[in-house]
Amino acid sequence: MRKLIECVPNFSEGRDLSVIKQITDTIESCEGVKLLDVDPGQATNRTVVTFVGTPDEVIEAAFQAIKKASELIDMSKHHGAHPRFGATDVCPLVPVANISMEEVVEYAHKLAKRVGDELNIPIYSYESAALIPERKNLAYCRSGEYEGLQDKLAKPEWKPDFGPAKFNAKAGATAIGARDFLIAVNYNLNTTSTRRANALAFDVREKGRPVREGNPITGKIKKDENGNEIWQAGTLKGTKAIGWFIDEYKIAQVSMNITNIAETPLHIAFDEINSKAIERGLRITGTEIVGLVPKKTIIDAGKYFLRKQNRSLGVSEDEIIKIAVKSMGLDDLKPFVAEEKIIEFMLDAEEKTEKLVDMSCVEFANESASEAPAPGGGSVSAYVGALGAAMATMVANLSSHKAGWDDRWEEFSDWAEKGQKLKDELLHLVDEDTASFNKIMAAFGLPRGTEEEKQIRHNTIQDATKAATMVPFNTMLKAFEIFEVCKVMAEKGNPSLASDAGVGALCSRAAVMGAFLNVKINAADIEDKAFVQDLLDRGKEIEDKSAKLEKEILDMVNKIIG
């Protein structure tokens, strides 16, 4: 699965749009990244840029942007309202999809080292990438700002984490870090009262509210023995919030930044604010997400609300998103367009290519029957396997929803999730099989005018053929896993759906056998005989086990249906 990270560099220029444009053009010229937002500020003289992509490509784009900023921005002449100490002031990396914070920290250090070494800019690592505990705090790293940087760099305790301990008058210094994804969200309320919305925000935000003597609103703020104000923390960790009135919609909102979505996910914040709102005679009427969010945020929310309803989580991604939208009222003020609000979908729309799995059943059948050599048996086998997984998943979902079986919903939900995952993996293999065939054809088209070209062509063909052989083998592995779901559904699922579990088993065996035929025919052209023999031995074992499991399941099904 594709790994994605977001980069949110802040550049110390917010007034000269031509400078900003040159920097963002540099980012957009890098393949594998998508520029999402450019937000210049006149008073701050600062521009916040947001782009996203695959890790190595994001690092390259970030480096080129920092380099361009160091060429165009002269910090000795910079003035603005926002704290800053460099042309590229801060550059945080944020995990978006299929990547851990630990991995993102490694990328942050990789970027920091390259910027320090190649551009001679002092680099301080902050947030999760901090190498010194005190430097986790950005404000600490930036203390003294640009004006105090030269003196600071002369002190041993302020030696940069990367780059020279030498004052770069033009570029200043840069803080490069890794942090969690920040979600900006507004919770709509059934009130026009800013005061009540603000009170609700104080109930939940991590900072909370000051403790007062007597009247909780107008009373004197209590202080401890050291003269410090006493505060009562709110209920949601990693959040900042305030209440305000939105003239455009004529409603009050709790406006919140969730700075730690692992600790406080979007849906948990929704439920907690709604609970506190009800205590105050209010309720949330809807939710407005500002900017973009990772797909996981919405999927986790959808599954959370399905779980609260004791409903199966093993449904399609589209269904899960729909549940999230309706449960949190994401379409309260205007339609929620997933392709415009979910980062992965926005990227997919940019990189959209025609896929076999996007065809209708009729189109797929017609394409398979055409004179085109692909899709062939490998793609069809993967698709038949996906149908087998779909049948097993349907039995699990309907069994989860069966009247009188309410205490068993989670048992069947777990099986439905497994079936749904296998279905999605096999659907991916439908196009993967055709793509691997096309790579072999491309390898055959390589030049062969010289001995060196002939050798390169030969090696490329062999590598492509090996890869193409592994695709149907992976189809075998995934299709074989479906039998477990089919068998449990035949044994324990709704008896009136036993025939569907049987059809799932039939499809699964057809997928295994069909994929194995493709393994064998591709393997005939591979010169690495040890690799081939291992694959054929493992494939034969899977085929034999599949035949046995199919018979067991069909015997069981036929006994049930009489």
Set down the secondary structure blueprint.
Blueprint: E1 4-7, E2 10-11, H1 17-28, E3 33-41, E4 46-53, H2 55-72, E5 88-97, H3 101-119, E6 123-127, H4 138-141, H5 149-153, E7 174-178, E8 183-189, H6 194-204, E9 209-210, E10 231-232, E11 239-246, E12 251-258, H7 266-279, E13 284-290, H8 295-308, H9 317-328, H10 338-341, H11 343-350, H12 361-369, H13 377-400, H14 409-444, H15 451-492, H16 498-523, H17 529-561
Parallel strand pairs: 5-7, 6-7
Antiparallel strand pairs: 1-4, 1-5, 2-4, 2-5, 3-4, 8-12, 8-13, 9-10, 11-12
**Count of helices?**
17
Give start-end ranges of low-pLDDT stretches.
none
The H-level CATH homologous superfamily of the largest domain, spelled out, is: Formiminotetrahydrofolate cyclodeaminase monomer, up-and-down helical bundle
The level-1 CATH class of the largest domain: Mainly Alpha
Strand content: 5-15%
Mean pLDDT: 94
Order of helices and strands: EEHEEHEHEHHEEHEEEEHEHHHHHHHHHH
Number of beta strands: 13
Shape: globular
